[in-house]
Amino acid sequence: MQSDSFANLRTLILGTPKDFAEWNILMVAFGDSVTQGLTVNPKMAGEDVYHSVLRRELHREFPERTFSTINAGINGKTTQGALPLLEGNVLRHCPHLVIVSFGLNDSSGGESGLPRFEENLTKIVTQILRSGAAVVLMTPNMMASRDSARVDPNFRHALADLIQRQTSGLLARYAGQVRQVGAATGAPVADVYAEWERRQAQGEDMNAHLANGLNHPDAFGHRLAGEVLSRTILSELRQGPSIPGDASAKGGGHGRRS
Question: 0.85 cut: is pTM over it?
Answer without folding.
Answer: yes
